[in-house]
């Protein structure tokens, strides 16, 4: 299997302590006009990735949207598929999700078997991802459609052991997700526990709709913040999130100071 430049770049950013912003584009909630607005904003405010997908894609225009984005933007498009029907070779890569928080074999390996020859025949970069759904107060489309029980919100140690097992099985990224439009995001305690348990880049999303929530996730150890719902409602939130990430990535005075003391 190809080890990919997208994965290498993400891994390098993690080693350097650099955080990233992924904007989730759900084809069900997006038309060309709103997509165009997000693309314009992403020209002015750095976006590192577009994730494309949703738990229940009912529309048929995902392919047209990917084409639209690829013709207008250099931001990599990563598929975030809910099943093997949502593959599209126009994207740059795919988060190949194994739903390790659940016990539904179809989402642990079944869909992957169906997708494997299609993925091999495509040029999609494959990013094997341990996907962990977390209970954030109400049943999400993702947990319903996947037929899985999410991780209990207040059990960081279960999340940590799940991520550890995923890493030992060879998964290269971990994704902690409260589900789109979650009432509250994954707790900093759980993010911290997973961060300490594994070395892989850590993606966190679901219910991030304020600068404070994003900041808390970044401080707890998230490498990539995913925002979908709130940017759909208020596209200017993209600028706020981009600024939060850039601010986090700037070296601080204290970092400079520690470098100086090391030299002395
Ligand atoms: C959902 O992590 C993503 O799978 C993003 O969630 O839509 O709540 O931002 P939101």
UniProtKB/TrEMBL annotation:
Sn-glycerol 1-phosphate binds at residues 175-181, 206-207, 228-229. It catalyses: sn-glycerol 1-phosphate + (2E,6E,10E)-geranylgeranyl diphosphate = sn-3-O-(geranylgeranyl)glycerol 1-phosphate + diphosphate. Mg(2+) binds at residues 26, 55. The keyword Acyltransferase does not apply. The keyword Metal-binding applies. Signal peptide: none annotated. Pfam families: PcrB. InterPro entries: GGGP/HepGP_synthase_I (IPR039074), GGGP/HepGP_synthase_sf (IPR038597), GGGP_HepGP_synthase (IPR008205), GGGP_synth (IPR010946). Its cofactor is Mg(2+). CDD domains: PcrB_like. Its EC number is 2.5.1.41. Keywords: Lipid biosynthesis, Lipid metabolism, Magnesium, Metal-binding, Phospholipid biosynthesis, Phospholipid metabolism, Transferase. Gene3D superfamilies: FMN-linked oxidoreductases. Prenyltransferase that catalyzes the transfer of the geranylgeranyl moiety of geranylgeranyl diphosphate (GGPP) to the C3 hydroxyl of sn-glycerol-1-phosphate (G1P). Belongs to the GGGP/HepGP synthase family. Group II subfamily. This is Geranylgeranylglyceryl phosphate synthase. It comes from Hymenobacter endophyticus. The lineage of its organism: Bacteria, Pseudomonadati, Bacteroidota, Cytophagia, Cytophagales.
């Amino acid at each position: 299997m190809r080890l990919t430049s997208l994965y290498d770049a993400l891994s390098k950013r993690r080693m350097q302590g650099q955080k990233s912003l992924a904007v989730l584009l759900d084809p069900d909630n997006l038309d060309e006009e709103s997509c165009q607005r997000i693309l314009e904003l992403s020209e002015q405010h750095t976006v590192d990735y577009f994730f494309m997908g949703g738990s229940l894609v009912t529309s048929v225009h995902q392919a047209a949207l990917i084409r639209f984005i690829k013709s207008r933007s250099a931001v990599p498009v990563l598929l975030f598929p809910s099943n093997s029907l949502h593959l599209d070779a126009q994207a740059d890569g795919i988060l190949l999700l194994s739903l390790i928080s659940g016990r539904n074999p179809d989402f642990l390996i079944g869909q992957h078997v169906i997708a494997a020859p299609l993925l091999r025949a495509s040029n999609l970069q494959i990013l094997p991802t341990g996907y962990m759904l977390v209970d954030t107060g109400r049943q999400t489309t993702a947990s319903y459609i996947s037929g899985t029980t999410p991780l209990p919100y207040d059990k960081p140690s279960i999340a940590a052991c799940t991520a550890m097992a995923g890493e030992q099985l060879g998964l290269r990224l971990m994704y902690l997700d409260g589900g789109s439009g979650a009432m509250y995001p994954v707790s900093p305690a759980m993010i911290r526990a997973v961060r300490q348990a594994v070395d892989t880049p850590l993606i966190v999303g679901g219910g991030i709709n304020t600068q404070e929530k994003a900041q808390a996730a970044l401080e707890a150890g998230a490498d990539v913040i995913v925002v979908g719902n709130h940017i759909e409602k208020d596209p200017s939130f993209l600028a706020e999130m981009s600024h939060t990430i850039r601010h986090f990535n700037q070296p601080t005075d204290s970092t400079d100071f520690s470098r100086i003391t090391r030299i002395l």
